[in-house]
Amino acid sequence: MEANKPQAKPAKAQQSLSNVRGIKNAFLVIIACFVVAVCFYMFFLGDSSNFDEAGHPQNIWGTIYMGGVIVPVLQTLFLTVIVLSVERWIAISSAKGSGNISKFVANIKACLVKNDIAAAQELCKKQKGSVAAVVAAALNRYKEMDENTVLSKEQKITTIQKELEEATALEMPSLQQNLPIVATMTTLGTLIGLLGTVIGMIKSFQALAASGAPDSTALSTGISEALINTAFGIGTGALAVISYNFYTNKIDNLTYAIDEIGFSIVQTFAATH
Q1: Where would a tag sit more exposed on the chain, N or C end, judged by fewer CB atoms within 10 A?
Q2: How far is it, in rounded angstroms, from Cα 93 to Cα 112?
Q3: Which residues pair with 180 in a beta bridge?
Q4: Torsion angle defined by CA atoms of residues 229, 235, 241 and 247, in that order, rounded to the nearest 10 degrees
């Protein structure tokens, strides 16, 4: 029974130390980006100053407008990737805490070498963030096991390892939040861009198939729609890939820091008991 009672403590420790913040409802972000994209498409790109009297585009904005209704959809995806990328930057920066993560890891390991658990706990309070929250939870369990006279050494080590795993499982999802959406944009942006390309080419071939002389305006409109949507689709997919890989690497580095400190905690306990 004694071993089961402390199980609820790690969550409290994490709630007091971890300060990761993020957008919980990404659907609202997508809706907001769609509204902005539609307004930009209708009132800026579609402004009459971007076209001549015959309806032909006079500048790049008019050319983009000729991409058709797929353009605001692609712009929505593009804006969503940008917003969620900024949101992940803020969230992961807060997860790292107030100081340099590498220096924090080195300082914690130095305290463990000296078996100074109190100093290590104080460092966690100053650092804050997800890494500090996980380490603090493990150190709290370390202290409890140090005072425990019932469990064997192997059971105590297993308890500390389990505490590390549970604390990590509670913290890591907040870091990965919204990244699956960014990953989805990688494929979705390219596919919707391809759809716009196909639609534009269909319009171009319809203009060529018209009886008599081909309608050059309809032909150019179809080609513009195809190329504009291709460009937006590739750009959105590329940005999403870069963003996803960048933040995945950041999360992997934080996970490695947790694993490194966790291993040191377990090794220190095993060597001193």
Answers
A1: N
A2: 26
A3: none
A4: -130
Radius of gyration of the chain (CA): 28
Angle subtended at Cα 171 by Cα 102 and Cα 96, rounded to the nearest 5 degrees: 25
Whole-angstrom distance, CA of residue 80 vs CA of residue 88 = 12
| pTM metric for this prediction | 0.80
The two structure tokens encoding residue 141: 């369990």
> Which residue range forms the structural domain that includes residue 229?
5-272
CA dist., res. 268 & res. 194, Å (int): 57
- Identify the bridge partners of residue 25 per DSSP, sorted by sequence position: none
- 35 token code pair: 């509204």
Contacts of 110 (CB under 8 A, 6+ apart): none
Work out the end-to-end distance of the chain between its first and last CA atoms, rounded to an integer number of angstroms. Answer: 22
Number of domains in the chain: 1
Q: How far is CA 197 from the centre of its chain?
A: 29
User: Tens digits of per-residue pLDDT, 175-208?
Assistant: 888 999 999 999 999 999 899 888 878 877 777 7
